Amino acid sequence: MSDISKKIEEMESALSTADHCLSCTSCMSSCPVMEAEKSYRGPKLVGPAHSRMHFSQDDFEDSLDFCSNCKSCDRACPSGVAVSTLNMLQRAKYYETHEHSQRDDMLAHGERMAKLVRALPFGATFANLGMSIGKSLGVFSAMGIAGERSMPAYASASFMQLFKGIKQPKSDKKVVFFPGCFINDNEPQVGVAFVKVMNANGYEVLVDEKFNCCGSPLVVTGYLDEAHEHADNNVSRILEWKKKGIPVVACCTSCSLMLKQEYHELFNEEKMHEAGENVYDAFEFLEILADKGQLNTNFKQVGEKLMYHVPCHLKSQGFGVPAAKILAQVPGVTVEQADAGCCGMSGNYGFKGDKYEISMKIGEKLFNRIKESASDEVICDCGTCRLQIQHGTQAKTCHPVEILAKAYGK
Amino acid sequence: MKHADTLVIGSGFAGLMAALVSANQRKKVTLLTCGSGSLSLNSGVIDVLGYDEQHNYVECPKEAIKSLPAEHPYSKIGMETVEKAVNFFLDFTRDYGFPYRGSLDHQLLVPTAVGTMKPTCLAPHCLDGTSLHGEEHIVIVGIKGLKDFYGNILQDNLQQSLNGQTKFPVVEVETPLLGGRDITTIDVARWLDTQEGRDSFASQLRPYVQSDNTVFLVPQVLGTKGQECAAYIHEKLGAEVLETTCLPPSVNGLRLQKMLKQALKDMNVEIVENTKVLRAVSDGKKVTGVVAEASIREKTYYADKFILATGGLYSGGITVREFEHPQEMIFDLPVYIESGEENWSNAELFSAKPQGFAKTGVRTDTSLRPVDANNELVYENVYVVGSNLGGYDFCFEHSGNGVALASAYKAALM
């Protein structure tokens, strides 16, 4: 291969992909925010075009604020442009010279808040009480947070606390679980189910107290330097585990996408790519076991009709939908994919007061699909998608790994 | 280990059709996609053959196909299969509620956004302008704020194309879409998906209905789903409403894409999004799997049969980074290319002579399996469809979706 061909093939960092954009409009046809909001000028103009044409310091595209980083544009792009990441880089650039709001500070730093709460006796109870009082007094609305939503409640014990009480069989086969903020603080039962599933497959699960939040809420809110610090820390931890031959597995698809791919796209450091190679999404990992004939398929009957909302950040990982295939093998389980586009939540996007309506409009197709179906439960790998589904439909939701844990009789 | 009986690579029209016909043969099908495919960029009408090698207008595609050179994909596919493919497509679109019309015996004429009448073979009712003769009361409808539609150019050229005696009036419809970004055809189509949108559109056009032969000519905006919007407005106005082809995003291409994807879902085709196939795993002349790039790591998909639908030069399925060294990116198949740099292009872009580079592509046997320069079979279970095929210039002869349809149909049956 000549130098020029090599150069073209190897343009990997997000910034250099902007030059691959042909302005074909594929991203515009797929963007759920454009469909819901006429002021958003769309991924093509904001991401690649503005990235290339942004010459002066105060030349910012206002409508960039509408991008939810759902990554539908990246998936639609025939030329491999990292459109959404270009948007996030520009957002970060904007906040180099502009102040963040108090709301953004709060939405980006859920991990900091949770640590405070956990440090206090009965912290979770008081924090939940505080949030419902705050909500009824309109404190959150005044801050610019969607008053229509409840903030996700803290679980009485975090996953890390619960983990200490789990008795696991020892094994030479080990994985490190990356719980992420939402599973750790709000839905620890997902992490517990993961441990049971891995145990049923002969794996012992480890945790690493030194992990930070993956940084996804920071990136989408424009705190890129802080996200970089998180990346440095997490990457060095992942590389330590890699040296020991122990993979890191996440159940939250936004965490896994960030650790596997987005660090490298955003910061373009080789170590991030190396670390990413040691990270798996939970069902990606389980499917690899299945392909090797090592998945425990000794499933018990679970009578459930499931509707599966596949999160955008799972679709972006390009390995298909392994949970649907694995759960379909469980006797009594049927899995139907909702196939109704983005749910509209996109992490902390739907929590913003001025984005609430857009978020709900995007989710409408999915809500209707779920309401019209006769499913017992909606499964989804992403925690904030699950919140959106509960909010938009009142349906019962869970992570697919919880169904699998049931199938193992745990 | 095996993922599928048939693995299709690419989700343009050819790839989606190949997956559909394969699934219809009761095969277990996996479709690997990278990007959303070409349908949002193409009008979604099926040109089979509009012009022959000398750029003469083709009246009857069925006859003209018979005199194509041996290396043309249609010659390899064979007339009988082309006919079956057309019938399959017509049946499919009817069954899914967005019927196409047309046949191989004569052309339909589709009005373009610049006022020419483009020959095509199959089109939905809303794009079929064959019956226009210039005597109708044609009203050209622009949308306020839709910059990609030029009513005045359309007006002049259409009058010429149809030998109209009088100037066709141009009117403009208002929408509630202004006040944000520049609007696109999809924005308007989504508005026309709503009841208020349809009623407002119809009531704004009603004053221009004259006599019983009024025809409204609109950009591609009549709803994002099938024909229901066009039928509703037609009924409300008692007048014909026709669309033109226009700049992307193409609403009609998206309608066709939506319908095809629904059918694939109904037939349990597994679609893997956002994965670029990098290379093949083979055992002699048999391909056993393909390796695709997922986020950070590769994943291998095993199957009995592989259909290559990654597109040609425009979509990177074939690249020519250095003259004389074209490359098919997955199987590294031998690629036919016009030799001599000077024969590559014709500087007169809109002349009646073809472009040398345009015929670049993979050469195949009559089963659509790849062959080398000596006509030796390269792989026995790989089939090549759509713009991956060499030996034809879809742009010059107006045959893009026709070759895609017929080759996909044939490859799926082999």
TrEMBL record, chain A:
The keyword Protein transport does not apply. InterPro entries: 4Fe4S_Fe-S-bd, 4Fe4S_Fe_S_CS, Cys_rich_dom, G3P_DH_GlpC_su, Helical_ferredxn. Keywords: 4Fe-4S, Iron, Iron-sulfur, Metal-binding, Repeat. GO terms for cellular component: glycerol-3-phosphate dehydrogenase (FAD) complex; membrane. GO terms for molecular function: 4 iron, 4 sulfur cluster binding; metal ion binding; oxidoreductase activity. The keyword Ligase does not apply. GO terms for biological process: anaerobic respiration. It holds the Pfam family Fer4_8. Residues 11-42, 57-87 form the 4Fe-4S ferredoxin-type domain. NCBIfam families: glycerol3P_GlpC, PRK11168.1. This is Glycerol-3-phosphate dehydrogenase subunit C. It comes from Selenomonas ruminantium.
TrEMBL record, chain B:
GO terms for cellular component: glycerol-3-phosphate dehydrogenase (FAD) complex. SUPFAM superfamilies: FAD/NAD(P)-binding domain. The keyword Metal-binding does not apply. GO terms for molecular function: glycerol-3-phosphate dehydrogenase (quinone) activity. InterPro entries: FAD-dep_OxRdtase_2_FAD-bd, FAD/NAD-bd_sf, G3P_DH_GlpB_su. Keywords: Flavoprotein, FMN, Oxidoreductase. It comes from the Bacteria. Residues 5-403 form the FAD-dependent oxidoreductase 2 FAD-binding domain. Pfam families: FAD_binding_2 (PF00890). This is Glycerol 3-phosphate dehydrogenase (Quinone) subunit B. It comes from Selenomonas ruminantium.
